[in-house]
# Entry
Amino acid sequence: MSSLRARKRSLITPGAASSNVKFLKCKCILENYSPLDLLPPPPLTTPRHESGAALYFNPMLTNGVVHANVFGVRDWVTPHKMALLVLLSELGRAGAQLGLLERRRLNRLLLPLLQGPDMALSRLRKAIEECCPHLAGSVHIRLKLMAEGELKDMEQFFDDLSDSFSGTEPEVHKTSVVGLFLRHMILAYNKLSFSQVYKLYTALQQYFQKDEKKDGADENDMELTNPEELDGKMEKEELDGPLREEEIACSGPLSQKQAEYFLSQQASLLKNDETKALAPASLQKELNNLLKFNPDFAEAHYLSYLNSLRVQDVFSSTHSLLHYFDRLILTGAESKSNGDEGYGRSLRYAALNLAALHCRFGHYQQAELALQEAIRIAQESNDHVCLQHCLSWLYILEQKIFDSCVLLEHSVNKSLHFGLPYLASLGIQSLVQQRAFAGKAANKLMDALKDSDLLHWKHSLSELIDISIAQKTAIWRLYGRSTMALQQAQTLLSMNSLEAVNVGVQQNNTESFAVVLCHLAELHAEQGYFAAASEILKHLKERFPPNSQHAQLWMLFDQKIQFERAMNDGRYHVADSLVAGITALNSIEGVYRKAIVLKAQNQMSEAHKLLQKLLIHCQKIKNTEMVISVLLSIAELYWRSSCHTIALPVLLQALALAREYSLQYLASETLLNLAFSQLILGIPEQALNILHMAIEPVLAHGAVLDKGCAMFLVAKCQVASAASYTPQKKIEALESAILNLNEAKTYFAKVDCKEQLRDVLYFQARLFHTLGKTQERNKCAMLFRQLHQELPAHGVPLINAFK
# Structure
């Protein structure tokens, strides 16, 4: 019970049932949550009530009406379970006749059959046939004799079951899984009245006859179907599979054991592999069915809460969460296990969970009220653990108003003092995130994360290890070190989870992996590997379907990659159509890209108004990365409007911000823009000096398009500087510029940037003409003409565009 109470307390940790985390790549990750929001839903286990008797349901009490009945057993006999009893009996009879491989297959089959809900006889037969065809035939014959015989045959069958435990070396041990199942069934059968025994026998006959009718219908279909169609039908049935447990729905009232198994299975799948769990609508239907027969089943209400969170249903999730804690108090589970503290414990954790739920949906005022209530009750009860979780959530709510790390530092110290490594680690990672946004050095942040990792490995906190690596990936992306980010992403993807999951369940279907895969897709797209990026996004779509809680991540990245490709290809109308989708997922990104499209379409005044509004908003919310990007776009608008001197203060402001917040890549990009400004103002020598200082980080970590633009700019500066050189030195400078243009052309071709390719070809043709290389000039001129006819000309001078 102590481990169960610990799991119940884990329900209230910050962000329970939520894993929305604000990673550091702020212009491509969700904005509204911190790493403290990342705690997963606990493994949903059903407590065994200490009161002895609990409510169990027998569907055979009254015709058409199901009544609650207090049984001393946790199960009852159904035709499906009788078929399982026949299977166990035949398995014992077969003995040494079964091969080792067949016995292993049957042993693996038995556990899900014993724990799972009832299924049709045809499906059960097919499952047995895949393991041992001979045994499937014996089970079918035995059931047929019993169903077509008399009632005394069923009575004799249950009498013979007790023989399995007799003898010096019994076939089944009483305490084994199979032994417990047999004893439960024998006890449940012995408690049935005569009328109930008769109803069970009638149900067995109907169960068998339904299977016989289905077999007859299948035989008629086989006669009317050609062999090719039959093969296709059989393949489809094989794909449906007999043992896909997530597809087994509750067809009627479940026993206590079946309900526990169903709930724990679905909760585990929601945490580890949401794609294999039942669809939200189907799962809610089954939960409603469970609650119809037992409205006080608290764990069913909690799973309903998790299911509602999947579809962002705030009303249903709140309703289910309140019912969960109400049922805990009504059943007396908490009060009996924790004394008089039970009721207060449920109340304060209910208030804290409610605060977490409101914070997840952005209802900060309601969250603050619920948090105050939780703090008040926890202080009255002197519950330090609950107060620590309240403190963590208080930090999350406070940071929506102002940036303060005092609460967080206090929370980390107290969590370590009270032995809460999970909470302490999340606090450390939140501090690292806050310091990263404040521009602290990367080496200090990595040292702090290393200390956090020691806690993770010491306490085997698998999920926090994943979060830490994803956090490192985001930090390197923020600081512009794409190579290091790629290394961290590969590290996380190559790791195996420390958590035990069922065979066939995809591990690590958490937001950490979604974030890392999204970064990986963007990194590949930036380097021109669009096919690889598409494969990664395809994998993301399969791993996180559109209705899953992390689908918004890959949706945003997918839209952004498509937008960049359309802009590179000069298809501005396509890019404009993608803006709406980006805005729906991230409003700041959407507005920024709308301004980029307007700028590309030469709608300067509209783009400038939009960028100014976005700049004010980003400065207000302290989104420094986006502020710098907006300033660079505003500077480009001034160039295009021939206001070159006005652009310089804007660029210097962006450079100061980039250096203050240690955003190295953005600082390098700003320097390239400054070099371009100096080129326009007629000082190409100074521009070349700046380029030599700034180009190295771009070539080492930059996107292919940025590399091409940088090399193109170097060539322009070399040509402009060569005007004052001696003839021999001028020829050398022009030839060097041609080599740089060839490199730029390679980069632009890799990302299919036709407009930039056209400009490079034009520039090369002019240089070849100056050098008297007619053949090369004509080749470049021909390629230029082809692209010029394909692309629209906007009438903007070539020199007035850096990118």
